[in-house]
Amino acid sequence: MNQHCDLALSNARVISMTKGSEGYTPSPLCHIGITNGQITALSLEPLQATNTFDCKGKLVTPGFIDCHTHLIFAGSRADEFEQRLKGVPYQEIAKQGGGILSTVRATREATQEELTELALPRLDGLLRTGVTTVEVKSGYGLTIEDEIKMLRAAKALEAHRKVHVSTTLLAAHALPPEYAGRADEYIELVCKEIIPLVAKESLATSVDVFCESIGFNLAQTEQVFQAAIDYGLTVKGHTEQLSNLGGTALTARYGGLSADHIEYLDEQGVLALSETNTVATLLPGAFYFLKETQQPPIELLRQHQVPIAIATDLNPGTSPFADLTMMMNMGCTLFGLTPEETLRGVTSHAAQALGMSDRRGQIEIGFEADLAIWDASHPAEFSYFQGAPRLTARLVAGEFDHV
């Protein structure tokens, strides 16, 4: 006899995203039982439940996970976008006070409440594309007070929307102007003051570093990673976006959850990922917006069975896109990924990139009931057709958020 559930989703065609081709293949009409926010039953027979929702044959997927965003910021860079299209070089824009430091100034001037309010419309864009979990990085404050403010603003989003927010400290994003020419001193501040405070107040679960010629070098990156590990935080890396410095291999050596961007990654770096099961997170929005030509090593990632995630990289300077399904389309059209690879990239592999693969990203008994119900007939539609609304409802921890 079937156990009793709080909620039953009946007549669902489930795309479970478990391993193997069956995880991508829609199931026959079945029934999902949910109790206390968890999936407790998957059955071909109707379930006894306090409440029932008829999916009417619609596709049900795990809630999508955007595992790399810079959602919290103030100010706009639309004027810079226009200037660049008119031929003004970036160096001139930066000299005029533009670039990342313009976002830093605006973010420092905003209150925590203002930062949360500004982020809500961007978050709403993601939610409309089926997102139930979003990772949010700091990195536009670059002082103790402002990095803390950003992380608190990110966490406050959960009070305004049905969504899970995972926070990442990215204080090592850029060199603040007051530390010009003193990068080592700034890294000391990050390691000895910011990371301990963030860990003490449980404001982030991970620490990220922009390891690049225009960011921080390998030695500085390793210093931050070691401090993160010492304080019980996991690590992630912005690596190999513009050059091959070896940041991805370093991230893997420290047991990193993911290495992100990785356009310039070589086979040695791919092998490092495969040995530690670190996720390769691709950010096609930034690749597209910056008109990059160096593609990430997709065939090597496949060959060495490295899990691939896809994320928006939502940010004001290089990826102003609040649409995860658009990133899936770009993953296919720009990088040659398959629709199945992109769907895994925003579900099971994205969960792995956030250290959540034991509870999110798949439809399995015991997993959290974070689900998306779609008016679609085939899973390839998520990365194929863009712009037409298909999401019927989202469930976050078993609670409905109708569209």
TrEMBL record:
<feature type="binding site">
    <location>
        <position position="140"/>
    </location>
    <ligand>
        <name>4-imidazolone-5-propanoate</name>
    </ligand>
</feature>
<feature type="binding site">
    <location>
        <position position="317"/>
    </location>
    <ligand>
        <name>N-formimidoyl-L-glutamate</name>
    </ligand>
</feature>
<dbReference type="InterPro" id="IPR011059">
    <property type="entry name" value="Metal-dep_hydrolase_composite"/>
</dbReference>
<keyword id="KW-0963">Cytoplasm</keyword>
<comment type="similarity">
    <text>Belongs to the metallo-dependent hydrolases superfamily. HutI family.</text>
</comment>
<feature type="binding site">
    <location>
        <position position="241"/>
    </location>
    <ligand>
        <name>4-imidazolone-5-propanoate</name>
    </ligand>
</feature>
<feature type="binding site">
    <location>
        <position position="313"/>
    </location>
    <ligand>
        <name>Fe(3+)</name>
    </ligand>
</feature>
<feature type="binding site">
    <location>
        <position position="68"/>
    </location>
    <ligand>
        <name>Zn(2+)</name>
    </ligand>
</feature>
<feature type="binding site">
    <location>
        <position position="70"/>
    </location>
    <ligand>
        <name>Zn(2+)</name>
    </ligand>
</feature>
<keyword id="KW-0408">Iron</keyword>
<feature type="binding site">
    <location>
        <position position="313"/>
    </location>
    <ligand>
        <name>Zn(2+)</name>
    </ligand>
</feature>
<feature type="binding site">
    <location>
        <position position="68"/>
    </location>
    <ligand>
        <name>Fe(3+)</name>
    </ligand>
</feature>
<feature type="binding site">
    <location>
        <position position="238"/>
    </location>
    <ligand>
        <name>Fe(3+)</name>
    </ligand>
</feature>
<feature type="binding site">
    <location>
        <position position="140"/>
    </location>
    <ligand>
        <name>N-formimidoyl-L-glutamate</name>
    </ligand>
</feature>
<comment type="function">
    <text>Catalyzes the hydrolytic cleavage of the carbon-nitrogen bond in imidazolone-5-propanoate to yield N-formimidoyl-L-glutamate. It is the third step in the universal histidine degradation pathway.</text>
</comment>
<dbReference type="GO" id="GO:0005506">
    <property type="term" value="F:iron ion binding"/>
</dbReference>
<dbReference type="GO" id="GO:0005737">
    <property type="term" value="C:cytoplasm"/>
</dbReference>
<keyword id="KW-0479">Metal-binding</keyword>
<keyword id="KW-0378">Hydrolase</keyword>
<dbReference type="Pfam" id="PF01979">
    <property type="entry name" value="Amidohydro_1"/>
</dbReference>
<dbReference type="InterPro" id="IPR032466">
    <property type="entry name" value="Metal_Hydrolase"/>
</dbReference>
<keyword id="KW-0369">Histidine metabolism</keyword>
<feature type="binding site">
    <location>
        <position position="70"/>
    </location>
    <ligand>
        <name>Fe(3+)</name>
    </ligand>
</feature>
<feature type="binding site">
    <location>
        <position position="318"/>
    </location>
    <ligand>
        <name>4-imidazolone-5-propanoate</name>
    </ligand>
</feature>
<dbReference type="GO" id="GO:0008270">
    <property type="term" value="F:zinc ion binding"/>
</dbReference>
<feature type="binding site">
    <location>
        <position position="315"/>
    </location>
    <ligand>
        <name>N-formimidoyl-L-glutamate</name>
    </ligand>
</feature>
<dbReference type="GO" id="GO:0019557">
    <property type="term" value="P:L-histidine catabolic process to glutamate and formate"/>
</dbReference>
<dbReference type="GO" id="GO:0050480">
    <property type="term" value="F:imidazolonepropionase activity"/>
</dbReference>
<feature type="binding site">
    <location>
        <position position="77"/>
    </location>
    <ligand>
        <name>4-imidazolone-5-propanoate</name>
    </ligand>
</feature>
<keyword id="KW-0862">Zinc</keyword>
<protein>
    <recommendedName>
        <fullName>Imidazolonepropionase</fullName>
        <ecNumber>3.5.2.7</ecNumber>
    </recommendedName>
</protein>
<feature type="domain" description="Amidohydrolase-related">
    <location>
        <begin position="59"/>
        <end position="381"/>
    </location>
</feature>
<feature type="binding site">
    <location>
        <position position="173"/>
    </location>
    <ligand>
        <name>4-imidazolone-5-propanoate</name>
    </ligand>
</feature>
<feature type="binding site">
    <location>
        <position position="238"/>
    </location>
    <ligand>
        <name>Zn(2+)</name>
    </ligand>
</feature>
<dbReference type="InterPro" id="IPR006680">
    <property type="entry name" value="Amidohydro-rel"/>
</dbReference>
<dbReference type="InterPro" id="IPR005920">
    <property type="entry name" value="HutI"/>
</dbReference>
<comment type="pathway">
    <text>Amino-acid degradation; L-histidine degradation into L-glutamate; N-formimidoyl-L-glutamate from L-histidine: step 3/3.</text>
</comment>
<dbReference type="GO" id="GO:0019556">
    <property type="term" value="P:L-histidine catabolic process to glutamate and formamide"/>
</dbReference>
